[in-house]
Amino acid sequence: MEKPAVDGSHDEVPAQELLLALGHALLLGAAWETVFNDPRWAWRALYIAYTHDKLGTPDQVEGVFFGQDEAEALVQRVASDYASSQPWQRPFYKFKVADWPLGTLAIRDARDSFHRSVIRHVVILIKQALQRHGRLPRGVATVAIGPVGAIGGTAAPALPAYVDVRGRRIVLWEDCGSNAGAEESIVFTTCGKTPLCGLMNGSGEILVPPAFEKVAPLRHGLAVATRHGKVGYIDAGGNVVVPFLYEDAVDCCQELLLVRSDGLWGALDRDGQEVIAPRFTALTHDVGNEALRAILDGQHGYLSLSGELLAGYCERPLLLAEHAFAGERAVFIAREASTDAGAAPLRQVLVDALGRQCGLQDFAAIAYGAHDAGLLRASAQDGQGLRHGYVGLHGETLIDFRFAAAECFSEGLAAVADVAAPSCYGYIDRRGHWMIAPRFDAAGEFHHGLAVASAPPPAPGWRWRARALMERLHALSRGKRPASRPLAQSAAGHRYGYIDRRGNWAIAQRYLEAKPFSEGLAPVRTERGWRYIDTCGIAVTPDHYQEAGPFKRGVARIGRRFDGPLRYGLVDSGGREIIPPRFERLSYPQRGMVTARDEFGLWGCFTLYGNIVAPFIYREAHDLQVALAARGATQVT
Which residues, 6 or more positions from 330, have their beta carbon under 8 angstroms from its beta carbon? Predict the structure, then answer.
């Protein structure tokens, strides 16, 4: 496209005056394409300081200027900083200055993050010019964007934005998208004598008009708002869901709304009906355990989301670590909270549904796995150091603390090391009886009836000695010096294999590394690389992978290095590469879709059958997720 003949005097317009003209035109409702395609300044040069990768793809915008010398000075400074702080990236990144006509920004829906970054820089320049001169068209008002009016939050520097006289539309919004939360709600505040707060989405459209003293971003479809000093809840349309009757409130947690009335905390459902009466001095949501941490008359306890007592009340604060059992009497693993800076590590205890400690013993640690079925692995200090054992539902000791090391139970067995031989592992049953004598250097959990194990090589027997003697005599008979044969060659060395539930070698220990079975297959490493074997030890893939993950939903992620960095793909249970290893990043399939980053650093999404859901055109994973959401596809990570 040829440059049209325009009066050269337009290029002499000072940058600040040009930015003011652009800003005023946009504030008065002119379309973005119309403003930047205006013949008066469409060919005015923008100088963009940026970095690009070894393939020449623009990577990151460092700054946008109207003067070439400013852009080149920034590039030199950035290149110097990179050279001193990140020398390993010097061969891969270059620093340049691009000369763009202003009219190129008329592409409204830029598909790449680089173009959007340029637009954001230009918008910042326009807003700085508007703020510096303070000249706004009639009917345009300034608002502050950010968590300024958030309930319980701290003040943050306000980002400028603009609304029209009716307060229904944000005029400049291109730099607001990064401030949007998971539900695309951004708090904005008017800048008049009586500031009022409202909500808008990432596109600048008003969701809730500014009519509240404070407001928090939407969470689960509801937002905390303040009016006339009282707190209530509103929905995404600004409708009052819970009346403004309370002293304080917190964001919606699951299906509960936590509110304070007369200095005491309680909980409401989403319709405003009381679920937990306001009688607690403190009530907070414990997200990890889906419970409520409560304080009543100085006593600490836990409530379920329906208000039932789970654990409490006791004088010492307990931090609910893990919900060990769910039954008539719930038992929890909890830690004693300590406020002393130099205090010893937190002790762990078992507490019942009444907040009483189960048993008399405190533990250094308690844990349980997916296959414990009522047995908790615990450790405690005694006069000789840390010892491991197993406790039951009420804190009673089921298997004595006599082991130097212990693992969780799986398929009825647990790997433990006796105190007499702390580096030698065996297996016990749920009664603590030895089922497999301790003779392994390493022992893992059982899966599919097999467990990874490693045993020291046995001493050479008479067969090995006889073979070594014959080799020595044969060498002497031929007039050669017999080669020395180290003892390590007499056996497999420190290798890994798989044992059955009787302790016999089901798969010989011939691997450098081995991982547990999943879905009937296990990754093992040989001198050549990783491969997969079945429960009979038969290889289903060649051993040329540099990385191999577990099988999930019928596929496993593999990594292979050809001439450069590691590339990832997927194999099925038959050993067939359904996705060849050619991606820099690759996810396990979720709902039949796989996200990946190709060798050019671009993100895309496809199905296991090779159908493209989103083409590989996105520089950032976030851009891909936004595109998937816009198309109604399920986002995967």
Answer: 310, 311, 323, 352, 353
Cα torsion 375, 381, 383, 384: sign: positive
- Which residue did the predictor score with more confidence, 467 or 335? 467
The string of DSSP letters for 503-542 reads S-EEEEEEESEE---BTTEEEEE-SS-EEEEETTS-BSS-
Contact between 393 and 374 (Cβ < 8 Å): yes
In the chain, the largest separation of any two C-alpha atoms, in whole Å, equals 109
pLDDT digits (tens, 9 = 90+) for 18-53: 888 888 888 887 777 788 888 888 888 889 888 876
Strand partners of residue 596: 586, 604
Chain centroid, CA 483 distance in Å? 56
pLDDT at 480: 61
Helix (H) or strand (E) holding 230: strand 230-235
Helix (H) or strand (E) holding 249: strand 248-249
* Residue 622 to residue 606: CA distance in whole angstroms: 16
Summarize pLDDT for 194-247 with one digit per residue, the tens: 788 888 876 667 788 888 999 988 888 888 999 999 999 998 888 999 999 999
CA–CA dist 241, 256 (Å, integer): 13
Residues forming a β-bridge with 166: none
Task: List the structure tokens of 51.
Answer: 């970095």
Alpha carbon of residue 531 to chain centroid = 29
- Does residue 177 have a pLDDT over 50? no
Residue 176, pLDDT > 60, answer no
Query: Would you state the structure tokens that stand for residue 628, as one six-digit string?
Result: 């998937």
Q: Where are the beta strands (DSSP E) in 297-433?
A: 299-303, 309-314, 318-325, 331-336, 348-351, 365-367, 376-382, 385-391, 397-406, 414-418, 425-428
421: Cβ contacts below 8 Å, ≥ 6 apart: 438
Could you tell me how far CA 131 lies from the centroid of its own chain?
A: 38
Q: How far is CA 421 from CA 167, 406, 426, 441, 566, in A?
A: 77, 13, 10, 10, 41
